[in-house]
Amino acid sequence: MSILSAERLVAFETCPRKLAWSERYAARVSLMAALYRALSAGLKADRHPDQAAANELMTIASNPGLDIYNCNVYAIATHFSWLAAILATALRNAFPAPWSDFPDLDVENPTPAPFRWRGGLYDAGDGIPRRIALVDKWSDDRKASEQRGWRTVGEAAVLGVPIAVTAIEIGVSRDKHRLSPWTRCYRHPKNDVFRFRRMNSEEDFSRAWKSEWREDSGISTADWLAKMQHDGCLDAVQTINVPPPARRGDFLVRMGEISGEIEQSGETPPMRLAGCNDPLHGPCAFLKVCFGSRPPSPELYQFQRRIQPSVRIPTPSGRSSDAVSAPSPEAR
Question: Could you tell me the pLDDT band of residue 320, with boundaries at 50, 70 and 90?
Fold first, then answer.
């Protein structure tokens, strides 16, 4: 039985070549993928979620490495490790117990091509299937994208229940740093007060206030989060509930069809430019292969072929455990 996940669906629909090469070649990890994996480690840690998240990101930066070049990799990894740490702490403050993955599900009906679904959802202790979406800004367009994409629709179709999508605004990226209250404050040079947002005005702080990255501030995570709450910045976390599609069976059939198409794809499938920059994982690791002057073979660009092909391109929540059978749409 083939293994299918939302990440495989998205990767195949946006660029079959990206999926094939991701599963056949070892590659460095994009900043966003590393952030998701680090956050997952913090959410599932038995204790000290901030340390677990930060350590995971620095471990990824060491091996296999971050997919960034011509910059201070250590400084950027440190910045993202602090971001992962505070996000994990904020979410675990809301749901204190360690989060867990939802198990794999065998989907055999109504699809003519059965598959094993490897989800990317968490159980935060309330039994509600939940996925995390890290976004620049939670706009109407991004909300619609998350509601109608495979990362949500695929999960809801398989489980047959509503999915809670928790979106967290982490700010725009400039020079590979995220600009948001999670990462940056403003500090007054005379009284050492730090703030994020003016309470009675939409104007920016005066020039006397100096911006400061969290990793350079010396401010504890608890104090930072308390000030974010005081300044009304925790509205950066929003949750919506997305029900299963009305014709759930049609989506399961299509998912089975795509699973079959993936299995039949060749060594070098056609490229699609839609997959060059994914909003979740960032730039494709194989951009230089497709856009380079040499033939489109990853091995010509120093990519190492995996000893065993992997069907587990990274999912935000990590790996699932034992598989169980999913009820048919009629049983829900």
Answer: very low
Contact (CB, 8 A) for 65 and 33: no
Residue 235, token pair as written in the block: 């509205």
Domain that holds residue 205: 182-232
**Same domain flag for 224 and 275:** no
Q: Which residue is it, tokens 């029900």?
A: 243
Strand 237-242 relative to strand 163-169, pairing: antiparallel
149/74 Cα distance (integer angstroms): 34
> Does one domain contain both 133 and 218?
no
| Res 329: pLDDT | 42
**218 within some domain:** yes
How does residue 145 score in pLDDT terms, banded at 50, 70 and 90?
very high
What are the pLDDT digits (tens) for 55-102?
999 999 999 999 998 899 999 999 999 999 999 999 999 999 999 999
What CATH number corresponds to the domain at position 65?
3.90.320
Sign, CA dihedral 102-105-111-115, equals: positive
Higher-pLDDT residue of 114 and 183 is 183
* Number of folded domains that form the chain: 2
Query: In whole angstroms, what is the distance from residue 234 CA to residue 226 CA?
Result: 10
| Same domain flag for 114 and 223 | no
pTM of the full predicted structure?
Answer: 0.89
